[in-house]
Amino acid sequence: MPASPASQSHSSILAVIVLYNCELAQSQSFVSLFDILKANPEPAKYFSLLLYDNSLQPQNHMVSADFPIHYIHDPSNGGLASAYNVALDRAESEQREWLLLLDQDTSLTAEFVLELVETTRNLHAQAQVAAVVPKLRVNGRIDSPAADFFALVRRQFSPPEPAISEDLVGIQQRRLSAYNSGSTLRVSALRSAGGFPAEFWLDFLDHVVFHALYLSGYRMYVMRAILAHDSSYSNVRSLPVWRLHNILLARSLYVQRNGTWMDRLLYRVWLLRHSRNLRECCKDPRIWKEAVRHAVQWKIGSKDKRLLT
Q1: Is residue 247 helix, strand or coil?
Q2: Can you list the pairs that 114-120 forms with residues at least 24 positions away whose Cβ atoms lie under 8 Å?
Q3: Taking CA 111 as the corner, what is the angle to CA 105 and CA 117, rounded to the nearest 5 degrees?
Q4: Residue 190, exposed/middle/buried by CB under 10 A (0-12, 13-18, 19+)?
Q5: How large is the average pLDDT for residues 11-39?
Q6: Could you give the 3-state DSSP secondary structure of residue 253?
Q7: Which of 178, 186, 235, 247 has a Cα at 20 to 30 A from 122?
Q8: Residue 3's pLDDT is what?
């Protein structure tokens, strides 16, 4: 198992917040983290902050703080993967040991920040732990971390697995996946696992990264902290057609690349069943019809690396 380079600062964290058409003052992640670090100068010593803005127009107003803040405006909008890879490069150049991923809509707490600093310090020498994640509550339910997508596909005819307990804390030996936002990843482990694949520029990137880390022998630490999170996946009706299309493509590519022959067969069945839900909740019929087409036309044994079209 690769160890953290000795040159990296002990428990040093680069936090990256990815913005899209959102002013800083409207970003729950930025406002909460900025206020917490400003009010708590001791944990603030462990942080630097990268603001990666995918909006067409740059921010009109920036802020100053006692901790380093760096702003990048990228109107080409390469999604999350591009922003996270830039953050990974910067974390290495700053000799940061950990990379905290944040979207613009996660509400952080002082308890989370303090626990994160303490936990990463305690895990400094435990190189097998590559991820430190909070529990994310979405609409009253703990949605992250959770069993990976393959577990869902394999158990589709069984009662669903219960949500992660609010009392779960510590290093997990079983395979779990977590949302990007709020996850803190060990920089050396992330680099050794391949970073953030550009093909998954927006959706299913979290599944891909946690799958790669687990297969590389790394494990996840689940924090005591519970954060409120606004997940776009929680309300399918509100998603535009292009986003539903992208989710379908990314999910299919994930299964195609990482699943067994049986997983790909079960995924076809899952797609057919899922298409019924899409038909009921989506006004545009193109989405559920595309899900059916994927299920019927997909070659189960194919290892084609291309996105399905």
Answers
A1: helix
A2: 114/40, 114/43, 115/223, 115/224, 115/225, 116/13, 116/184, 116/223, 116/225, 117/11, 117/13, 117/43, 117/46, 119/221, 119/223, 120/11, 120/13, 120/46, 120/184
A3: 95
A4: buried
A5: 95
A6: helix
A7: 178
A8: 37
Determine which of 33-37, 60-64, 265-269 has the lowest per-residue pLDDT on average: 60-64
CA–CA gap between residue 161 and residue 156 (Å, rounded): 10
Query: What is the Cβ-side half-sphere exposure of residue 242, based on CA atoms within 13 angstroms?
Result: 1
Residue 231 has pLDDT above 90, yes or no: no
| C-alpha atoms less than 13 angstroms from C-alpha of 70 in its C-beta half-sphere | 14
State how far the Cα of 215 lies from the Cα of 230, in Å rounded to an integer: 29
φ and ψ at residue 201, rounded to 5 degrees: -65, -25
State the Cα–Cα distance between residues 154 and 14, nearest whole angstrom: 37
Coil, strand or helix: which one is 279?
helix
| CB-count exposure of residue 96 (10 Å: 0-12, 13-18, 19+) | buried
pLDDT for 309 equals 34
How confident is the prediction for the chain on average, in pLDDT?
90
CA dist list (Å): 203 to 18, 56, 232, 301: 14, 20, 11, 24
DSSP SS3 for 164 = coil
Share of residues in the chain with pLDDT > 70 (%): 92
Of 271 and 11, the one with more pLDDT: 271
Report residue 206 as tokens.
């979290």
Query: Band of the pLDDT at 5, cuts 50, 70, 90?
Result: very low
DSSP-based helix, strand, coil % in the chain, nearest 5: 40, 20, 40
Angle at CA of residue 240, ends 235 and 245, nearest 5° = 100
Q: Give the mean model confidence (pLDDT) for residues 260-289.
A: 92
Q: For the chain, list the domains and their CATH numbers.
A: 13-234 (3.90.550.10), 236-297 (no CATH)
- Output the six-digit token pair for 10: 């002990």
Task: Report the alpha-carbon angle 236-307-72, nearest 5.
Answer: 70
**C-alpha to C-alpha distance for 154 and 270, rounded to whole angstroms:** 9
